[in-house]
Amino acid sequence: MERILIPGAEEILVGHGLPEPLLPPSDRERVLVLTQPGARPIALTVAEAIDGVAVEIFELPDREAAKSLETVTRIYGRLMELALSRHDTIVAVGGGTVTDVAGFVAATWLRGVEVVHVPTTLLAAVDAAIGGKTGVNFRGKNLVGAFWHPSRVVVDLDVLEALPPDLTREGTAEALKAGLIGDPGLVEAYRSRGAGVELGFTVTRAIRVKARVVEEDFRETGRRAILNYGHTVGHAVETLTGLPHGHAIAIGMVAAGEISRRRHGFDADDQRLLLERLGLPVSVGDAALRLSKEAVVAEILKDKKRDAGGIRFVLLRRVAEPVVAHVSDDELEAALAAIDVA
Ligand SMILES: NC(=O)c1ccc[n+]([C@@H]2O[C@H](COP(=O)([O-])OP(=O)(O)OC[C@H]3O[C@@H](n4cnc5c(N)ncnc54)[C@H](O)[C@@H]3O)[C@@H](O)[C@H]2O)c1
Ligand SMILES: [Zn+2]
Q1: In this structure, which residue's CA is closest to atom 5 in ligand 1?
Q2: Distance 96 CA to ligand 1 centre (A)
Q3: Does the beta carbon of 159 lie inside 6 Å of ligand 1?
């Protein structure tokens, strides 16, 4: 089992099967396991692996429907009935929607209880479950949330290896993003072996990139923003089309790559080929969708990635050399043209 530590924050365990004990030692008496339909069998295994305390499973609605204040209220109700106290624990077993909601509930219930994440999608394992950002959707994506570290993140490679190909592809977009912003070796592995790279390798490498960035900047005052590579346009595309997050981010990386090419000579063609090779969409047309420039720009302006200076993008000078910069209207237009949005 590989152990990655974010000092003062979380411990991440990556391996085949579950660690023993599954939860960090404590005097807890109760555990509420939050899960979702696709992860229910794994939640049962996790619940069985937790010894000596009362364990209950609570199932959330599938996908983004879970990330609502209404769901949060329902969970608070159950926590009240269970009398889940300050020294008890919430365990998230599922994709990023479950870890986001569980983290938010844990951050706010009694002003903060322990949360442990067992991510069951690749996207959650390399991204959502790591780094303590939690949130739910309110009128816009992730507009309500808190920073709250899990005490432990357990990544079971057996679970990830059994994922349906679609979910693997989605997570691969975020793993590749991690490589692009911080690990040339990971990008090289995808370049030479495509989707055939060993999962244990990509997962640990991608988590290490995120852990390093989070350690440097826990509250996203500065450097942590680089994790949003591809997300300025990606989030807008996701909201407007309902495309899965990873696919929308792949398209967003093409847009950011185009501005990076114009400004810094970044090899955007290579990035595009890499995405295609991994079976990810590289334009809105690829996903058999149409979007207007006006709609995308309006959506970007609603998002958090802007300030007084304008819309902020994460750009790449080259692989592993990210910069955060304001972009001009012309650059934005070129970025959107690159993904078939005119
Ligand atoms: N907090 C962060 O830093 C952060 C970072 C990236 C993404 N996110 C969030 O993560 C969410 C996306 O995460 P996601 O892609 O994991 O989505 P998700 O939680 O909706 O899961 C996707 C689908 O996979 C199913 N599923 C889960 N585990 C499975 C398994 N082992 N086998 C088969 N099916 C399974 C689920 O039931 C669901 O239908 C978004 O809401 C995004 O905002 C958060
Ligand atoms: Zn993302």
Answers
A1: 128
A2: 4
A3: yes
Q: What is the pLDDT of residues 112-140, one digit of tens each?
A: 999 999 999 999 999 999 999 999 999 88
Q: Is the CB of 59 under 6 A from ligand 1?
A: no
Choose one of 126, 161, 196: the last residue of a domain: 161
The answer to whether residues 176 and 275 touch, using CB atoms and an 8 Å cutoff, is: yes
In whole angstroms, what separates CA 204 from the centre of its chain?
15
- pLDDT, tens digit, for every residue of 53-106? 999 999 999 999 999 999 999 999 999 999 999 999 999 999 999 999 999 999
How many domains does the chain contain in total? Answer: 2
Q: Which domain holds residue 47?
A: 2-161
CA 322 to chain centre: 18
Q: Which ligand 1 atom sits nearest the alpha carbon of residue 244?
A: 15
Q: Assess whether the previous peptide bond of 164 is cis (omega < 30° from 0).
A: no
